[in-house]
Amino acid sequence: MRRAAALKMLFHDRATALGSVAGVIAIVFLVGQQLAIFFGLTGFMSSIADTSGADAWVLARNTENINAAGSIPLSWRDRVAGVDGVAWVEPVVITAGQLRRRDGNTIGVQVVGCNPPRLAGGPNRFAQGSIADLLDPEAVTVDKLELPELGYPGVGDALEINGKRVRVAAVTTGLRGFGGTLLYCSIAKAREIAGSGGDRCTALLIGLSPGRDAVGMVALLRGILPRAEVFATADLSRSTKLYYLKNSGIGTSFGFTTLIAALVGLVIIALTMYTNVISKSQDYAMLRVLGARRRDVLYIVFLQSLYIAAIGILLGFLLLAGFLSGTRESALPVSLPWLVGPALAAATLLLCLLGSLLAMRRAVKIEPASAFR
Amino acid sequence: MRPAPVIQLQRVARDFHDGRQNRRVLFPLDLSVHRSELTIISGPSGSGKTTLLTIMALIQRPSQGRVLIGEQDVAGATEDLRATLRLRHFGFVFQNAALIPALSVAENALMAAAVQGGAVTAAARRRAQEALDTLGMADFWDINVSKLSGGQKQRVAIARALVNDPELILCDEPTSALDVESSAIVLKTLKRLSTEGRAVILVTHDPRVFPYADRLVQLVDGRIATDTGTKHTTDASADA
Ligand SMILES: Nc1ncnc2c1ncn2[C@@H]1O[C@H](COP(=O)(O)OP(=O)(O)O)[C@@H](O)[C@H]1O
Ligand SMILES: [Mg+2]
Question: What is the pTM of this model?
Fold first, then answer.
């Protein structure tokens, strides 16, 4: 009875109730959107590591960021290959280049060269073609989402990177770089683009034998290669993201926008719920006369705050889902790790309860005597 | 045998602070309210009628004096206890009906049984149905109260006052916002409730209501100016 009455009383003042719901939606949607873009963007930072399929990476000393790694001697490959538990070791060459589009404009690209025939570290999701297309020494892959920036090249089209001829052989999906548009090719082509010698590479990718754990192997390899930086792939990914968060304004910028979104929502909730209680204060005073204690009135407003949170979170997530599915195929980087959903819902509920404190404080102060005025 | 009063005020006075000074709006007075009696408290505007009513209703505390329910002085009781006593023993009818516009007739009536939570009992529901039926409001059970006329609203308010089967019904100017016809229905109902054994206190400044009184108490400037006395004559001395 009280629960139904609380809900009806809340929505009787429709404008303020919908205002409160809008405040909750604002929090869920705006914060969710910011987080999705943030995680999308940070995902791109480390996409080279994340798609590599390797268990561990050997890089130049002091490398923190996969997009800014120096070169190492290819000869280290032999020292790693003999280690018990290492199933395979493959070099990659990562380099920056200038791609000349068919319309003559140039754009900055990031090129990853993989070693045939295994082509370890190569792309794994294709819209057109497959990894085997990279066995062709001229071949490059482009990503579907970056076709506009590349001037819409089609499969079979010839392009130039740093004046070196390449041919679009396959189209990947959702594989985008942070230091420029990401293209994959053979290691020889990458060396050609970079103008580097055959005795060096950017990294050695390591695959472990089944049952071996990366952490133990990393420690072992650090002993064997004291002048190298050795990472488990997940650690390299994390280190890369952290590097950008520390060295660019991205973290603060997203944190600030998220905070503002949460604050705006909080203020909307607080003001509208307060107004709702004021507009219903004669009702609450009357209920006090009939025998409601302060805590009974408090309970009604608390329930109302839960209703607002529930409705707002539901609608906010629907809107967010719409946004996410609408941008999946667009150039906007979005990704929301599944744990973020419940965390966002819980945080929003807390903010909604926090926002209702003002209204609750007002509600418990309503005196029954005011019903007789 | 003398029937025990439902509620008894002894030397009750009330002061208000307005700004710096203390203003006395009720001077020490004694009043006992009995079952089966419709007591009208009248007097000019500002004479202290509502203040007296809210003290009897355990809503405001007296500045001095005792408020007895049975043998117990509840003047100083905690707010929660007074709220619970109101819930169990009192019914209320306000000048403006004071229904919750968001709710239906039934929900408004039953709210009186639900204000402290818990399920509405079958008995409370039955009393609400009976009361609405008697008041000619049975067909309006699920209707939103904002669709009702002033007179219909006040009848719903009376039904709400009866849901918890109170011994005492307190009404503050229940007819002053109503037309003659609706006033008559409300007053006849209150009169019937008193003859059925409840105590009814009716605060009004309208002399046309006086004929319904079993007892008439006139307040002037915070003092009882006249009191026709209770029909339970053995008790009249206590109120002198
Ligand atoms: N909460 C209050 N604070 C200060 N003065 C009050 C308060 N309530 C009532 N009064 C004063 O007490 C006097 C009696 O008021 P009230 O009991 O409402 O009279 P009535 O109901 O007879 O019109 C009035 O002068 C009024 O201004
Ligand atoms: Mg009054």
Answer: 0.84
